[in-house]
């Protein structure tokens, strides 16, 4: 059964400007060390960071909490060995998913020139 869904779209240049303006402060506030390493290795790093930002927003929407009592660092988006993006939850976001009895989280991200988008579907039992 679907417990929650979330979708978010981000303009890549918005994230690029934030990275250029705030540098490590912005990156370390929003992304985990593993996410930063992954994205910085990409030619179009801004799109990779933007997609992960959109994915984190989509997770918060699917959980029904928004940023209330959550941290960006508690949501990690990394790719598996086949390149599929996957979500790991920590801290309060993991606790919320457990409370909702979430058993699976599905993530799809895409980039298209100026924008990155992410969709999250959370499955579980009621």
UniProtKB/TrEMBL annotation:
Keyword Mitochondrion attached: no
Pfam family for this entry, one: ACPS
Annotated InterPro entries: 4-PPantetheinyl_Trfase_dom, 4-PPantetheinyl_Trfase_dom_sf, ACPS, Ppantetheine-prot_Trfase_dom
Record domain 4'-phosphopantetheinyl transferase: where: 5-118
Obligatory cofactor(s): Mg(2+)
Localisation per UniProt entry: Cytoplasm
Keywords annotated in UniProt: Cytoplasm, Fatty acid biosynthesis, Fatty acid metabolism, Lipid biosynthesis, Lipid metabolism, Magnesium, Metal-binding, Transferase
Alphabetized Gene3D superfamilies for the sequence: 4'-phosphopantetheinyl transferase domain
A GO-annotated cellular component: cytoplasm
EC nos: 2.7.8.7
Example of a GO MF term: magnesium ion binding
Main subcellular location: cytoplasm
Catalytic activity: apo-[ACP] + CoA = holo-[ACP] + adenosine 3',5'-bisphosphate + H(+)
Region forming the signal peptide: none
Entries under SUPFAM superfamilies matching the protein: 4'-phosphopantetheinyl transferase
One GO BP: fatty acid biosynthetic process
Binding site for Mg(2+): 8, 57
Family the entry assigns: Belongs to the P-Pant transferase superfamily. AcpS family.
UniProt cross-references to HAMAP family, sorted A to Z: AcpS
Role, per record: Transfers the 4'-phosphopantetheine moiety from coenzyme A to a Ser of acyl-carrier-protein.
Protein name: Holo-[acyl-carrier-protein] synthase
Organism the protein comes from: Halanaerobium praevalens (strain ATCC 33744 / DSM 2228 / GSL)
Encoding gene per record: acpS
